[in-house]
Design goal:
heterodimer, A: about 90 residues, mainly alpha, 4 helices, B: about 400 residues, alpha/beta, two-stranded antiparallel ribbon, 14 helices, about 20% strand
């Protein structure tokens, strides 16, 4: 299990009223009931947590795993964080 | 014939209690919600006191809601929720189209805007909280309420400083009376006890000094030693309903709104004019078809500034003539502070409670009579077991806006 996923789960729990059991890689944002405004807020938290910048129009995600993948990609592209693999 | 308007639900978040029962008990007992401020900046301020609300948003809302609402929106929605439960208007889809929301607020999302500037200018942030716009905008409270209850009629925000929520209730009353809608959630909210706000009010030199013996006694309306207003925060929302509908569904009828006066001094930004205030009172009486002698209690604007208390006294004398000395007038701001845009709605609820309890709440901290303020201000001790059928509530705002509401007990 990647550190990115774990950190993301903690962010979810801090921000919303979800149980950690609900947060699986395959869980969809639609299932969680998150709308576009929720995601705009959550992207801000993700940027803070992972020290990345998520460019406009480049965060088209539908599942938690897709968020993890996107975050890992931004980390490696932007070279300002440390790749999550090294924390595993 | 004009339609009649009943009040069928009440909700409150205030420095004197976060539900109607606590608020009512504390006010009649003369219990003050004024205390030393809890702000992290308090050591920098010369003002040391305020009437803060003891409020944990997580007792009311989900994390997601808390994160997406300014404190003022949280107050408004919490008060609306109480009022909605009290009234249980049970509207179908068609009826919701004829139901609306009018909320008054002076400053809107003041906490959010201050956080924004703190991040930008103090911490050099290059990005800010994404929902900032939606939390700062003054109509957010009304919109949250409209969305929560699916009310799709008119949804407006009225901003007339300290008269905001009295105007909101008065205009909502007219919406129903004149047939545009059948149900309205109306009231107001304010939550602007921020460092910037305290500094701004300090500079205006209208704030009360701290009572050297007891901080909670610092607000002294109509007293010779009054030294200014005490800033407060809070919210109050009521459900207004067309009378026949309310009776037909067996709603609890708290009272009937019978009069509303709305005037502008057209004179000065801060100095009140007793003529403008008197005209608002006279208009409300005229609309209600009442004489001054019909009013059993006046809930005064009573801010405890030198000018307000003097001029409001003169205005009451002008309208009520010889009867002015016979009508009890009290300023409950002595207890809940000046809640700004929420004041009119909070004091409208005080007026309803006076009818419900057949009791008049006191003006506390009135220890030194002022020869120029010589009405019956119900000093220090509330009166129980008195006839209170009809009440006038005064609200006056910076900019010169005056709003006066009259409520009457339901006939048995």
């Amino acid at each position: 299990m990647s550190t990115t996923l774990e950190r993301l789960k903690q962010l979810f729990i801090a921000k919303f009223d979800f149980n950690i059991e609900e947060l699986k890689p395959t869980t969809t944002l639609e299932y969680l009931g998150l709308d576009s405004l929720d995601m705009v807020e959550f992207m801000f938290d993700i940027e803070n947590e992972f020290h990345i910048k998520i460019p406009d129009q480049e965060f088209k995600v539908t599942t938690i795993q897709e968020i993890v993948d996107a975050v890992d990609r931004f980390i490696s592209e932007q070279r300002i964080g440390v790749s999550s693999d090294k924390h595993s | 014939m004009k339609r009649r308007v009943a009040v069928t639900g009440l909700g409150i978040i205030s420095p004197c209690g976060n539900n109607i029962d606590d608020f009512s008990l504390n006010l009649m007992a003369g219990k003050s919600g004024v205390r030393r401020i809890s702000s992290a900046y308090s050591s920098l301020l010369s003002v040391k006191i305020a009437a803060e609300v003891d409020f944990n948003p997580f007792n009311y809302f989900t994390k997601r809601q808390v994160s997406s609402m300014d404190r003022v929106n949280q107050f408004a929605l919490a008060a609306a929720s109480q009022a909605w439960k009290d009234s249980e208007p049970s509207l179908d889809a068609k009826e919701k189209e004829r139901a609306g929301v009018y909320i008054g607020s002076g400053m809107g999302g003041g906490n959010t805007i201050e956080d924004l500037y703190d991040q930008l200018f103090k911490h050099n942030a290059d990005r800010v909280k994404p929902l900032t716009v939606l939390m700062v905008m003054n109509n957010a409270s009304a919109s949250h309420i409209s969305i929560e209850y699916g009310l799709s009629g008119p949804c407006l925000t009225l901003s007339t400083a300290c008269a905001s929520s009295a105007n909101a209730i008065g205009e909502a009353f007219r919406q129903i009376r004149d047939g545009y809608v059948d149900v309205m959630l109306a009231g107001g909210a304010e939550a602007f006890l921020t460092y910037g706000s305290f500094r701004s009010w300090e500079s205006l030199r209208v704030l009360a000094g701290e009572d050297p013996d007891d901080s909670s006694k610092s607000c002294k309306p109509f007293s010779k030693n009054r030294s200014g207003l005490v800033l407060g925060e809070g919210a109050a929302v009521v459900v207004l309903e067309e009378m026949e509908r309310a009776i037909h569904r067996g709603a609890l009828l708290h009272a009937e709104i019978v009069g509303y006066g709305s005037t502008s001094d057209a004179f000065h930004m801060t100095r009140p004019s007793f003529e403008g205030q008197a005209r608002a009172m006279s208009e409300a009486l005229k609309e209600a078809g009442l004489l001054p002698e019909d009013i059993d209690y006046i809930n005064a604007h009573g801010t405890a500034t030198q000018w307000n208390d003097l001029l409001e006294t003169q205005a009451i004398k002008k309208v009520f003539g010889d009867y002015a000395c016979n009508v009890p007038v009290s300023s409950t701001k002595s207890m809940h502070g000046h809640t700004m845009g929420a004041a009119g709605a909070i004091e409208f609820i005080v007026s309803l409670l006076a009818i419900k309890n057949q009791a008049v709440p006191p003006t506390i901290n009135l220890d030194q009579p002022d020869p120029e303020c010589d009405l019956d201000y119900v000093p220090n001790i509330g009166r129980k077991g008195v006839k209170v059928n009809t009440v006038m509530s005064n609200s006056f705002g910076f900019g010169g806006t005056n709003a006066v509401l009259i409520v009457r007990k339901m006939e048995e």
